[in-house]
């Protein structure tokens, strides 16, 4: 069971001659089982041997991105790579492959850039000719009597084209710099213009009349230059005017033909790049191959180069060394000129990485655990139990048969191939979690007997309606869930409120008890017997004798038949009296006799009282005795990548170093607890946190009751405010009213319950999983096994 505990890891030294470094790393990349340790994480990338290659790969990837951007501009679809490993095996080359890729990609990028510049210059030329034509065609409109008069009075004119969006700002600035001594005429150009950045803009022709003067002309000239406007001259005679228009029309036709030809060439070139060569488009193939080279050199930089040999340290899952050695021998056998790399197993004090074999089903649940913290090496992984407990907790809060079925159907749809190509592709990895949440929501909805706020009479009610009152049939028990008769009772809300609150407490105590049991298994696995006797057993007994006893009373009260409900004792009152009045005989006992209940509660209270000092002082006391018997203590330095040391490994190394018989109790040695005073403070905090946490955590599970009650009440409100009255009315008008009101009911159900409330339940379940459950046993101070594998190379489709 690789998901229960981490895979067994083995430590190896990796030795690679420089001549075969690329070939060895290329061979290891096809295995998903090598974790390379960076020999100096603080060393900057620029100071590493192959930093230049990494930079060149980045430059080439940038050029590929530019080509890809151009393909998107031309709306050219490319084919993504369905299998990266298959492509890499087909295109497997040598260490000189990157130079060939670099040359090919740079040549294509340079050719496209040149064609792009040609297209931009032709587009700019075409725009300029069009602007000149528009000025000449609209110049007649400006040649009125006023303009002729202005010319006779010594006014000058200036004509040009400006962006429509800059028109008001242009007129305002011109008016200010000339102090109003100017006349501005504007005429819109109907046809739109395409800019070099492919923006489609609107432009307009302007004509300025201003008094003669060099200073005014220079000011206007600077404003026009700041707006990047084009100025044009207007011929004085009509013949010159007609000749200029004819000449510009010919130039426009030529520019348009050249531009169309250039765009066609670029489009054809890009179409060639989008053609499938092996199993994807050429451009995507180049991107994957260059990304592989970058990934290879970045991992090669993690090895220490001494003279002409690379030395490194790696972690391998147990049993993978034979495959690696066989691959390295095959590499040397295929080419005798390539010196082979070697791996050598050795001992280390480094803490191994945590490695689990995941699949599409277990991945989302493990991600929930990893978000809180990575499991310590070989400790019990909460991800295994999370597969059931997390969807169940959400289902308790979201319990409704109708809503659960909708969620279950959504999960089924996400498992289909169509979902991967739809807008819901982002939540496809969560498909199995959604499926389980829907299943447990249906399950809990059957327990609550709640279907869209309507009760279901699936097995026949045990109550008969007699004279307006419900009477219970003798020896009748509803087969599963709540009897539907409670849905019509006057105290339905009070009953469901009490039931869900008690159910939440029972689930919470069971969940926390399971967490403490897992802590006991962890202590036994690591042979940490001090924690087993001084922490696990007292904590288990304390929780069992307090809140476990409370759950027992709840079940006992449910199984006891009272002639009058007023005679039923309150469980909360019983628990309070157990602490405040332990020697008094209960007035309303749940046991056969009050004296028997008092004796049992005294015994439980005594156990609780003894458990607290055991947790508080036992470990510091044993630690102080151990220090007195071993004055010559040497602390072994920890090389764990996290701050906390691996306690069990540390003690094992200490025993091996001293070579002396020790007590069977494992002495837990924390780096930060070398002083007895610090250990006392730490143990005091741990004890107080557990005792108070037992109360607060149990109360925290009441969110199961609160959110479940809120969900059912919201569903009832939406149903009663929309279609309930029309369904009860019946007939033609009732049917019409139900049809009219149904969209509102569906929208409220989907928006509030299926989206907002589901997200709320999800977040509260995360809180219970992380804080209330995992805090009982989970250290979360490990680090993940990061395999050096070409499967980590993602396609653009996966990134999107």
UniProtKB/TrEMBL annotation:
Any Pfam family: V_ATPase_I
One of the GO BP terms on file: vacuolar acidification
Family stated for the protein in its record: Belongs to the V-ATPase 116 kDa subunit family.
Upper classification of the organism: Eukaryota, Sar, Alveolata, Ciliophora, Intramacronucleata
Main location: membrane
Coiled-coil positions: 112-139
Full protein name: V-type proton ATPase subunit a
Entry's Gene Ontology molecular function annotations: ATPase binding; proton-transporting ATPase activity, rotational mechanism
Residues spanning the membrane: 390-414, 426-448, 503-521, 533-556, 599-618
Keywords for this protein: Coiled coil, Hydrogen ion transport, Ion transport, Membrane, Transmembrane, Transmembrane helix, Transport
Domain of life where this protein originates: Eukaryota
Subcellular location: Membrane
Gene Ontology cellular component annotations, sorted alphabetically: proton-transporting V-type ATPase, V0 domain; vacuolar proton-transporting V-type ATPase complex
Functional description taken from the UniProt entry: Essential component of the vacuolar proton pump (V-ATPase), a multimeric enzyme that catalyzes the translocation of protons across the membranes. Required for assembly and activity of the V-ATPase.
Bilayer topology annotation: Multi-pass membrane protein
